[in-house]
Amino acid sequence: MCGIAGLVDPRHSADDLRAAAGAMADALAHRGPDGCGVWAMAERGVAVAHRRLAIVELSEAGAQPFVSADGRWVLSYNGELYDAADRRPALEADGHRFRGTSDTEILVELIARHGVAGALAQVDGIFAFAAYDRTEDRLWLARDRMGVKPLFYAASGSRLIFGSQLTALTACPDFRPEIDPEAVSSLLRHGYVPAPGAIYRGVRKLEAGHSLGWRPGEPVRSEPYWSLDAVIAAGRAEPFEGPPEEAVDALETLLRAAVRRQLMSDVPLGAFLSGGIDSSIVAALMAEGGARPRTFAAGFPEDPRFDESPHAAAVARHLRTEHTTIPIAERQVLDRVADLPAIFDEPLADPSGLPTHLLCAATRAAGITVALSGDGGDELFAGYDRYALATRFARRIEPVPRPLRSLGAAALEGLPRGAAGLLARALPPPWGGPEGVDRLRKAAGQLPGSGFDLYRRLLTLNPQARALALGAPGLPSPMDAAGTLPLLARMRRLDSLAYLPDDVLTKVDRASMAVGLEARVPLLDRTIVEFAWRLPDNILTHNNKSKWPLRAVLARHVPPALFERRKQGFAPPLASWLRGPLRDYARDLLLGADSGGGFLDRARVGHMLDEHLVGTHNHAVGLWPLLTFEAWRLHRSA
Q1: In what order do the strands lie in the sheet with 66-67?
Q2: How far apart are CA 579 and CA 586, in angstroms?
Q3: Distance (Å, rounded) from C-alpha 540 to C-alpha 4?
Q4: DSSP 179
Q5: Rounded to the nearest 5°, which phi and psi values hold at 603?
Q6: Record's SUPFAM superfamilies (predicted)?
Q7: Is 336 exposed, middle or buried (0-12, 13-18, 19+ CB in 10 A)?
Q8: What is the mean pLDDT of the chain?
Q9: Minimal CA–CA distance to 32: which of 520, 519, 515, 362?
Q10: 227 is in an annotated binding site
Q11: Angle at the Cα of 354 (from 350 to 360), degrees rounded to 5?
Q12: Is residue 428 over pLDDT 60?
């Protein structure tokens, strides 16, 4: 992958334009350590920059910005087109003489012949790009269908700046970013800032599957060129109607093709392997035909609750991959917590971000430049535990009249803390134990609601986010929109629109690109996305198994005994860390003289931290976004 940046600003001289674009590109050096280029047209006030991580076509024939053969289009592109080889013959037949083998050249020539909209309708891959049309004096920005690759922009009057990360925008002269209180509120609630919003006022994320074309003086409007809702509607209109085993046959064929397409590379390639279903499928299909892919797993030897490495090693032995376990010690993670704001340019309160980064760094140090991951399987094929919880709630609790549920909730919530503690100790896990009181009270609060209310609550890190953010209501989120889909489809849709691109894919992009490692996601191939949305619920959850189709595919390659187990996740034990080794770090950040910066209610934050530290409540999930924001805020002002 790479980093892209640029600006349109007619006020600048030629030297100033190049200097500004160069500074923006330099801020993305970690994304592209193999080269830097700047193209500028002073009379139009346009400059486009690029930082290169060479993956395909390692020679200068793949350097960017790339100018089309007719001289009309200038392209700065971050991504991979997995169907590039299929597009090449038609371009050659049309008379194009290729300078090299890069997919950049394929893309710019498709744009030259069909326009941006026509090219986007054809290509398949992960990307974010800027294409400047010299004939119409128009800048185009576009982002891939599922939002794998990032793109930010800010526009005001006759000026527009853009970049792969916020660090590129903040490196642009005369750009004065201001933190948006609404974004802070959203961060505290969700753990991320939902697109199209950004942590800075006036900055936007280009949404997944969107493009925009702009010239000075025009309003900035992004438009979808691809819509997940259209895919969902098409899938529901023509659902898969065969027996479950036929669905597995079809899915395996699509998965095999997607993985093979994504193995193209002129540099060393490997895969992340946790031993779970999704990453194991990717590794299994990579290993077909006798190949021995290199696979990498993170190990947490000090805490077996979070250590999936033995399972990953067992799958690797069965598949005969060249496997490496990367041990991550608690001290190693704790020592790097302060580095998070430098890795994540926009605050992201995903506790697995740092372990993911350490895994990526070790994988890159082992000589790998491209790694395939299993991200996307849970959203597409209904793999999250919260789906099952919400569905069971809807089936078993919702039929009880709401007044009765409200009475039960009031009774539980009204129990004195001592009585609630006695009740919690008498109950089995997960309701028992020292944190059982919190769980009981949270469960009581859900009783009057619906299954979807429970799902939304499970994705809310801080129910008091608005109060903690001094009353800021937060940015619009897909989570708050009304929906008419059945419950399971509605949850999958919302996770695919929000949690997947704004948390999961953002985490993987920043964690990997910080060390110059490209991460690919074959489960998010367009063919698989479209097929997943044709599958009815009774196939997705066949035999009462979450993401049953993926399980069934994997069982053809790996014995179920090696992967049929409860999800462990990849998050560190925050609750104990905040009461132990991170205690002083948390107190310094949240209770210091400059804490809050005018964005947080210091009294509420302090009370919340105190309750956690003395052990009467477990606020770890809610405290982490507060710590993430404060660490990021202080880092940016340092």
Answers
A1: 66-67, 73-81, 125-133, 138-143, 210-214, 222-224
A2: 9
A3: 39
A4: B
A5: -65, -45
A6: Adenine nucleotide alpha hydrolases-like (SSF52402), N-terminal nucleophile aminohydrolases (Ntn hydrolases) (SSF56235)
A7: middle
A8: 93
A9: 515
A10: no
A11: 120
A12: no
Residue 569 to residue 306: CA distance in whole angstroms: 7
How do residues 254-274 score in pLDDT, each as one tens digit? Answer: 999 999 999 999 899 999 999
Structure token digits, residue 13: 């001289």
Tokens for 612? Answer: 């956690």
Q: Comparing 146 with 448, which gets the higher pLDDT?
A: 146
DSSP-assigned letter for residue 495 = I
2-226, what's its fold?
Glutamine Phosphoribosylpyrophosphate, subunit 1, domain 1 (3.60.20)
Domain ranges of the chain: 2-226, 239-382+488-562, 573-638
- Say whether pLDDT at 426 is over 60: no
C-alpha 112/C-alpha 104 separation (Å) is 12
Q: Has residue 55 got a pLDDT over 70?
A: yes
583/613 Cα distance (integer angstroms): 8
- Residue 118 has which token pair? 């026509």
Distance CA 568, CA 298 (A): 13
Contacts of 342 (CB under 8 A, 6+ apart): 635
How many angstroms separate the CA atoms of 109 and 95, rounded? 11
2 among known catalytic residues: yes
The correct CATH number of 239-382+488-562 out of 3.10.120.10, 3.40.50.620, 2.40.50.140, 3.90.950.20 is 3.40.50.620
**Phi, psi (degrees; rounded to nearest 5) at 253:** -60, -45
Instruction: Establish how many alpha carbons lie within 13 A of residue 346's alpha carbon, considering only the half-sphere containing its beta carbon.
Output: 35
* Residue 249 is labelled as binding a ligand: no
103 annotated as a binding-site residue: yes
Find, among 49, 35, 57, 117, the residue nearest to 77 by Cα. 49
| Residue-wise pLDDT tens digits, 109-143 | 999 999 999 999 999 999 999 999 999 999 999 99
Q: Which is the catalytic residue, given 2, 36, 172, 360?
A: 2
